[in-house]
Amino acid sequence: MSAQHRRVFIALMLGMFVASISQTIVGPALPQIVADLGGMDHYSWVATAAMLVSAVVVPIVGKLSDLYGRKSFYLGGLAVFMLGSIISGLSTEFWVLVAGRAVQGAGMGTLMPLSQTIIGDIIPPRARGKYQGFMGAVFGVTSIAGPIAGGLITDHIGWRWLFFATLPIGLVAMVFIGRFMHLPFQRREAKIDVAGIITLTIALVTILLATSWGGTTYPWASTQILSLYVVGLAFVIAFVLVERRASEPLLPLRLFRSSVFSWSNVAALGTAMVMFGSIIYIPVFAQGVLGVNATESGLILMPMMLGMILMGIVTGLLVTRTGRYRRFMITGVLFMMVGIWWLSRLGVQTSPYELFGAMTVFGVGLGMAMQQYTLVVQNVVAQRDMGVATATTQFSRNIGSTVGIAVYGSIMTGGLTAAISSHLPASMRDALSAKAGSLDIGAVLDPSAAQSLPPVVADAVRAGLADQLQNSFMLGLPILALVLIATVMIKHVPLRESVQTAEEIEKEYLDTMASTSASDGGQVERGQAG
Prior knowledge:
The chain is an all-alpha fold.
């Protein structure tokens, strides 16, 4: 890698860092934010707004960057993200904060896929593994550092500085990209697929809202949730029909003719479901069952993230050295299955060391497999489709994370009352069933609330929560079995030594030869005329 490309890579890591940490740094401050601005009834919208907008923007920006170039969109993404940070930091009303988070989401949806895409533009697949390992490490670092930094900044400076703290990093990334990133690019004049953008946006918003609200805000079988899913499905069908007729489709359906592309996206979606479901609900297990406090429950994810970071870097280096990737991906999925099986066996008698062990095994598997799905997709698509192909993989992860968190949460809460009652003495079940039914997750996880309960009830709450979380984690096994099948189905395609496919190199050579021949022919004609 040249010195210029190294500077670009550093800037990309900084951009990925500010986008990733914004997803985790706000969590510890939410109680204080709601206390200052109000909005307790709409608490989740601080996260939901950014998630929704990011999911919509990812495929759109991926396609437009293929048509009009990466640099302007990346710089625009940084600018939009920083604008959202300023709006959020200066907000004096709750819904202004939500609007700021939505603007941040637009920046996040630009920065995260384009960081991976630009790596694909400047580094050949054969050498790309180690760099994608470093990019994956950025996500792991922010997952650890975000909650810790969020708590410290909120306690000592104030929650508004959570949004201002990333501004200097974003400015440095903007300067580096503006000065050092000069990618060869030929602008393609094409009609923007407006109908595809509209239909996909409506489909995504309705389906993701239904998935996020189902089982929490509204029952899964409620009119609101079912209506949203019906509308979403209708617009998915409309989107497919539009894409089949578009001259320059937002998401070219021809990409799915590649089994490598299709199976990689299936695997990425399933991996994200299990990964984010675990990230959200392992701390719930630590607080509600093991009895640790909120700070400790955030730190308890560290073994998993360290395993992911270290093995992500090591696996990237090995892929670059050997040119082999399937063996690492398959082994990684098997490690994940062992880790999830171990998590599903944990209960009220579990020691923190057993939890650490399960998380470490799972994290090792994530590090070996997660980043390789992007690598294999980029290895089989043409340069002209690099943006939309990479964005589709990121989009699959976004959908997987949303669905995984929602489904894990529904399983945990759905039978929680019955699980708690089952651990109460028979003489107390009827008398305390109403009280057990009123125990929401916040009360279960609140140490002071747990201390106020009679010991027999507190023990029943812990045991019932452990039972339900075992069921949630157990769901990861069939999902990972599908991920394993999808990963096995990804055929090995040798990693290219150049950023272009063989067909693109051949076409460029033929175009050059044709241009040279035409130029030579013109000179001969002028010579004969003279």
